[in-house]
Amino acid sequence: MSIDITDHLVVNALGVLDNPNVSSSSALVQTSEQLTIDARTLADAHASGVTAINVTLGYTMGDFPPYEHTLREIGTWDSIIRENHEHLVRIDTAEDIAEAKRTGRIGIIYGFQNAAAAEDRPERVATFAGLGVRVIQLTYNQANQIGDGSMAPANRGLTPLGREVVAALNEHRVMVDLSHSGERTCLEAARVSSQPISINHTGCRALVDLPRNKTDEELRLVAERGGFVGIYFMPFLNASGHAGAADVVEHIVHAVNVCGEDHVGIGTDGTITAIDDLDAYQDQLAEQVARRQAAGASAAGERSDTYPFVVDLRGVDQFRKLARLLEERGYSSARIEKILGRNFYTYAKAVWGN
């Protein structure tokens, strides 16, 4: 009998709450990333069975003043949740995830994909934590003051400031996320952190040798330290750039083989609401890729001839389809439950507390 995901926690360790079909000019609610949260966005999220999503807010790249921009976006998300309180709830503790499931609301986890907003002041971590931020990724693809991202050629480890930032994240019980980091930055952060760390959205480099994917050494160390690894639904999962649902399964299987079944989950790096007109989107994609390349923020494997998502694993049925595919692979209901969200919940308890 097929697994019923409505019985389980489903946690997207990095995702997007957005209706990508609405133009920016008609958006009801926008952040700087021009996300649109409308009735369809909320209905699709509910229909998908997702319990909680780690959403990206604050500075990631661009010409914004990082700290001020980040504070504005936190305020924007506070407003979004307040105005949609019957649908959304901010997640501060692991128990909040379970409570979101019980009340039928979508849990929103505040997360950064770049710690640049801390600038040279690690004490700002306390400010961010006090405002509800629960996940801070140290770097994006490029280098910052903390360490090197996956595309930084020097592959430095943590800087002295980076070590201070990790210590501050530990002190204030904020997840240290090593997605997008360079290999040495990831390994050093995992070793110096006093709490388990995570790689919330990645693939396995042993299967596809691209910088955004993590080596077995990185995956294993994160798991050995009690951490969490989320597999994304991204083109980096196939050497051709055209990843499919089968590739997602293969990377999950590899990660489980390396890390053990208690440390692997999902971080799709995408929306729940599907793009309706893929042909029109394809026409826009080249411009998006060029803009990211010009900003120095793109990763190897980002191309205009491939979608930045898995075409056959999107929309409101993406989590149900993944569960079916894992079941067909021979995974038990208990293991699938762990991958869909239970492992993230356990990891959250270890870092945030109940």
UniProtKB/TrEMBL annotation:
SUPFAM superfamilies: Metallo-dependent hydrolases
PROSITE patterns: RENAL_DIPEPTIDASE_2 (PS51365)
The organism's place on the tree of life at top rank: Bacteria
Gene3D superfamilies from the UniProt entry: Metal-dependent hydrolases
The protein, known as: Dipeptidase
Species of origin: Nonomuraea insulae
